[in-house]
Structure prediction request, 315 residues.
Amino acid sequence: MPYHPIWFIVISATAYSIGLPCSDAFTPHPQTLQESKRTVILVHQSQLQSSDELAAGAESSSLREQAKGLKARAERLRQEIIDQQQIARQTSPSTTFDEDLQVSNAVRSTTHTAVNSMPLPWSLESNEEDEGEEYRLYVDIGREEGTWMDARWGASGKRIPFTLDVKLLSNQLADAETAAKMVKDNNMGKSSKVYDLKTAPFARLRDGFDRMQCYGGAYRIDLGNNGQYTIRMMVKVEGTKADQNYMYGDVSIPKGYLYFSLPCFGGRINQLSSKEGPVTVRQVGWHTGWRRDESRIVGFFQTKPITIARRKDSY
Prediction:
């Protein structure tokens, strides 16, 4: 049989794979033997590579399936969340509004109750045992023409308006010390007994931004020779302080007693005139010819029944 290189490669590969030396078959050409070994190695590597590719492909296919499953699950969860949010948006606004309305009403009711239960400092303290008439005095303090006040007092024209709530008691007489402070200027006429006058704890100044402490007072009704009745009221006040000059300038309310005079019809405390009346203080001077206490005009005032005043002023 003639020698052929292909036979040699096959026989050599077989012998090599079973571990026989090539000399047991026949001895090929050295170059041919080297090529056959290279061919066997390449075939083996190709088989290994194919196995790895198959394994990698199977693993990749498994991962893709897992990824698809996770993606589908995520889509389901996302849709469930969207559905729950839509349901919440449809139901929560009305519920939230109702809850907010209830809370708002509760807070408003509590605040209203607290405000009503806490009296303002310029409001009268109620007492069922006190019988009488309540009024609000609208007072305007400032320099008036013909006053005997010091020439520097109120020269700038500035004024101090304030309100003061009072109650004219009809069933309680003033104590002797307070009654003695009333001005005895009706010697030719007749005067009633001196009755107690209650005031709010404070007068309301500067629309409520300032206040002046008040300590009550007294009142009486005079009948003049002309047959007219006049109510004389007296209120003890703290007055404005020296450090308040930056607010009121050269006008001030003296500490002590303020005196109010006003016509009243029939001598009844529920029939006070709505006209203006003078406000005076008592100071020592020489305007009457000798040194003594004299009345000096410091302003004017008006009165309104407390029920009408509260509707008008909203406090």
In short: The helical segments are 5-17, 30-117, 176-179, 245-248, 306-313. The radius of gyration is 56 Å. Confidence is low (pLDDT under 50) at residues 3-11, 13-26. Residues 5-88 form one domain.
